[in-house]
Amino acid sequence: MKTIRYYASVAAISIRQSIQSRLEYPFMLAGHVLANCIQWVVGFATIKFVVDQFGSIGGWGYESLAFLYGMSVLSHGLAVVFFIQTWGLGYWMIYGEFDRFLLRPMNLIFQFLFDDFNLIGFTDIIPGLMVFIYGCIRVNLTPSLTNILLILCTLAGGTLIRGAVWLFCGSMSFWTKSTANFTDMVGELFERVSMYPLTIYPKWAQALFTLLLPLAWITFWPVKDILGPETNPIPVPLAVITLALGLLMFAGSCAVFRAGMGKYESAGS
Amino acid sequence: MKSYFFISKIRIQTALAYRFNVISTILIQCLIMYAMSCFWIAAYNGAQTVAGVSQRDMITYTTISAIIGNLLTIGVQRRIENSVRTGSVALDMLKPVCIYGIYLAEDIGDAIAALFQKAVPLALVGTLLFGVPKPASLLHFILFLFSFAIGYLINWILAALLGLCAFKTLKLGPLANVKGFIMKLLSGSIFPLWFFPVGFRKALELLPFMYIYQLPLGIYIGQYTMEEIAFRTGLQLFWCTVLWLLFDVLQKKMAATVLIQGG
Question: Percent of chain A scored above 70 by pLDDT?
Fold first, then answer.
């Protein structure tokens, strides 16, 4: 109990410091709000215009697409808030940044994950919420307790799946000894699989993103289930599977990270 | 002129050194190209034409957009930002050549390297997946090349104008993102403007962004009549001239106020 309280207090201090350091540049923060609103709100608007011309995309009308898109931006924003440090893991490794963590009597993954709490990620959440609420209204989603729980499960699971993929890709640097950054490539993949319905892709790609590289679980499957639960062939809500997959994948990535730390040579000076 | 050619050559050689960067970029671009083509196939869902454009033309549009996207990747804004922040802009200004000429030569060098490293492989992958992305005719192809060249200059000047802000703000931060997102969404690089509502489209046609992607690509697939091509290319030249004049005035002003820091 004492240990948990100690860890919680360290996490709270670290989060507070991260927020303070980001608030030092208010114009920067305002700029990010503007940039992300353009990116996500205008981004969705352009999709809406195109869907208006065609009627639907892969069997999805723009109302359901707004809901899907909003959920995707929200889990993206949350992942950016909590896991942004994984983007530069290669640099941490090359410059010997883990030395200070290794000297402290605390869990390494905890230190790494709570080293940065990225307030700027919330600038993604603002436009995400706008599109999401718009989507909820357009699909006439009942604000029942079940739906709220399913949405929360999806967001938590989706955020963890994104974080797990980032942590896994970043951890590869321990073996490759390079700062090569997969963020762009992974970001594009996330965007294409979680913002558009999976049904636009051929069957082999649908199977790939459902079973082998389960990115379709970030939003597509749970959202499809929330919008039309009668089509779900299994008795468990798909949002629960998303959460379970998120936890499992994150635990897996943490194990890879730990194994990678075994290769850490403190190359910095 | 010889010195500018030399700078372009150095940039081509530098670009060739980063193999991982090239491979990962090609992979990303193939992914986007494939995903967008799937998007259009799903959207058309067997329909012959929508808004006067066929599915085949939209896939050609997507493929060529991905290809020219690589050539339109401009480094000048970051280059100016870094030079100002580190103070190396002072050394650049001491050189007996125009510094913006150097930056343009660097970007052209990068574009030439990207043509062989990224554009050609992408064209091959696009051809393998969806067939040859043929232009409407040889004349359309020649007009496309001309329009693309002017579009490149507009894109470069816009990036350089943004870079000039760094003389005042020292850091561009999210400003660069704003420009990137506007460019991505409103230039027709992903969704052509002819699918947008009339009012919104008319507003966008008043801005220079559509002349970077939409106009050359529209010419390539034969979406415009010859009269329209002549009129719109005229507008494109007008924008290029106006932006260049603006840039020329601003860069002289900024050079007078330059603050040399770093070192």
Answer: 98
Q: Which residues contact B91 (CB under 8 A, 6 or more apart)?
A: none
Distance in angstroms (rounded) separating the CA atoms of residues A231 and B154: 50
What are the E-state strand segments in B190-244? Answer: none
Give how many domains chain A has, as a whole number.
1
CB crowding A216-232: b at 16 or more within 10 Å, else e: bbbbbbbbbbbbeeeee
Distance CA B209, CA B189 (A): 10
CA atoms of B245 and B241, how far apart (whole Å): 6
The structure's pTM equals 0.86
Is residue A266 assigned to a domain? no
Put simply, whether A204 touches B (Cβ < 8 Å) is no
pLDDT in tens, A1-39: 788 888 888 888 888 888 888 787 788 888 888 888 888
What distance, in Å, lies between the first and last C-alpha atoms of chain B? 30
Given a cut of 50, is residue A190 above it in pLDDT? yes
The answer as to whether A123 is a domain residue is: yes
**Structural domain range at position A90:** 2-261
| Residue ranges of chain B whose CB lies within 8 Å of a chain A CB | 20, 24, 27-28, 31-32, 35, 38-39, 41-45, 47, 50-51, 173-175, 177-178, 181-182, 185-186, 190-191, 195-197, 200
Which residue ranges make up each domain of chain B?
A: 2-257
Rounded Cα distance, A231 and A149, in Å: 19
CB A254 within 8 A of CB A167: yes
Amino acid at A126: I
Answer yes or no: is A255 within a domain: yes
Q: Is residue A147 part of a domain?
A: yes
